[in-house]
Amino acid sequence: MTTSRRGFLRFAMGSTVVAGGLQVAGAAAHAEPLHSVPPDHIGIQLYTVRNIMATDPQGTLGALGDIGYATVGVSGLYGHTPEKFREMMDIGGVRAVLTHTSWDAMNANVQRELEIARILGVRYVVVPSLPGSLRTVAGYTHAAAKFQEWGIKCRSAGMKFLFHNHDVDFVKADGKVLYDILLEQTDARFVNFELDLYWITKPGYDPVAYFERHPGRFPVFHVKDMAANGSFEDLGYGTIDFPRIFARYAQSGIREYVVEHDTPKVALVTAARGHDYLMKVRF
């Protein structure tokens, strides 16, 4: 796979030069000084490449390392033990910065989930969604209390707890945006947020407004672009104004920029474009 993969990556990276160049040219018109995304904090959520991870996890992790990714967000172990998966990441030249684990798994055995996270070597343990049955003020209030409990346990284990949003988290119940309950009823020492920039933008909410109201609580971005018709798009080919969002790096608390695309046409092309964009974007 090595030879063909390298040829594929040369094609994938070559296909992004024009788009990336336009982005830099546009950014250059902004006032100095310009800032960039730290290369060692550019990652990709493995959900983006899940189809090829399922058939060739070692080759896929190696391909991501060849593209230049420093980190990955783990989305399942594809039938491997945590120890084996950690070994494969090491061989592929990437490190896990976060892992997604379910609400149900955390409820069933939080210590087991933290042990898996420890073996993987992650900094962040992330619950990526809540059950639909909790989509009420009382349900999100309950979730906030559980997050607080898990966040304390994560901190004791040397990790941090985060919640990842979808658009449904921004619906209103009894006049209250449900997502706001999680922010308002948790302690920033123990609970923070992996902000999916697509899923907050699509329902019409502004990430910057959240940074202003809740500074420092968004250490991870899922950097996901949106086409004009509202569907998913490769980074730099869509409509989301990432430089405007990234420019608030001090206020947001951002540390990790994690590329994601839910339905890529060709996963490694999407991955290459995402890395290329984050390497070149200026803000």
Would you kindly provide a written description of the structure presented here, covering whatever features stand out?
The chain has 283 residues and is an alpha/beta fold. 47% of the residues lie in helices and 16% in strands. The protein is built from 13 helices and twelve strands. The protein has helices at residues 2-14, 17-28, 50-55, 57-67, 82-92, 103-120, 137-156, 178-184, 197-201, 207-213, 242-246, 249-252, 267-280; strands at 42-45, 71-74, 95-100, 124-127, 160-164, 172-173, 176-177, 191-196, 220-223, 225-226, 232-233, 256-259. It has an eight-stranded parallel beta barrel, surrounded by four helices. Strands 6-7 form a two-stranded antiparallel sheet. 42% of the residues are buried. The model is unreliable at 1-29 (pLDDT under 50). Keywords: Isomerase. GO terms for molecular function: isomerase activity. Residues 106-262 form the Xylose isomerase-like TIM barrel domain.
